[in-house]
Amino acid sequence: TSRHLSNASVEEEKTLAMIKPDGLFSNHTDAIKKVILDSGFHIFEEMITQLNKDGASSFYAEHSSKSFFSSLIKYMTSGPVLVMVLEKENAIADWRNLIGPTDARKAKSTHPHSIRAMCGQDLEKNCVHGSDSLQSAPREISFFFGGTLSGTEATMHDEL
Ligand code: UDP
């Protein structure tokens, strides 16, 4: 029927969301998950894991030449993270909009209802991550949830 056809045409999209070490440490997990579910996302998969130096460096490889890189790696390896695959129509852009701008301090004035305004501290410790494009989302999802086929994931992070 036409009703079934229109339902089938809705494109579900997946993105990688992460609660970074500061977000887990400060107990923001339940509040963040409430925002996720209230915003219509389905949590398709989730895992608590600990990035090691190689894993964090690989995940943020595009920033390896930046001045903030070593500090970023130290931050990202400072404790466990909660990674989630979120599913929804337009998930990538909608999750980026929900988390708000990179600088959590600025987010508090310009995007006061964003997740980074709620639980982030500054430009580095911004409590959450979201894939930024159709290219990065599948790459980041398989980084954490790709299984052990290639054997590389095991050297990047340890499931807790
Ligand atoms: N970051 C930082 N200093 C900067 C820019 C970024 O410490 O000047 C950190 C911050 O934790 C950010 C991450 O590096 O979330 C990745 O930066 P990106 O520009 O990709 O921001 P995002 O996509 O996370 O908003």
Can you offer a commentary on this structure?
This protein is of the alpha+beta class and 160 residues long. Helix content is 45%, strand content 19%. The chain has 10 helices and 5 strands; from the N terminus they run αβααβααβαααβααβ. The relative contact order is 0.22. The model has no long low-confidence stretch (mean pLDDT 92). Bound molecules: uridine-5'-diphosphate (UDP). The site of uridine-5'-diphosphate (UDP) has 9 residues, from loops. Uridine-5'-diphosphate (UDP) is lined by residues 63, 68, 72, 102, 123-124, 126, 129, 132. ATP binds at residues 20, 68, 96, 102, 116, 126. InterPro entries: NDK-like_dom, NDK-like_dom_sf, Nucleoside_diP_kinase, Nucleoside_diP_kinase_AS. It comes from Tripterygium wilfordii. It is found in: Cell projection, Cilium.
Put simply, the count of helices is: 10
How would you state the average pLDDT, rounded?
92
What is the count of β-strands? Answer: 5
End-to-end CA span? 46 Å
Shape: globular
SSE order in H/E notation? HEHHEHHEHHHEHHE
Bound molecules: uridine-5'-diphosphate
Query: Are there runs of 5+ residues with pLDDT below 50, and where?
Result: none
Counting copies of identical and different chains, the oligomeric state is single chain
Helix content: 40-55%
Instruction: Tell me the strand order in the biggest sheet.
Output: 4-1-3-2-5
Primary descriptors:
160 residues; 19% strand; five-stranded antiparallel beta sheet; binds uridine-5'-diphosphate; 10 helices; single chain; hydrolase; ATP-binding; alpha+beta
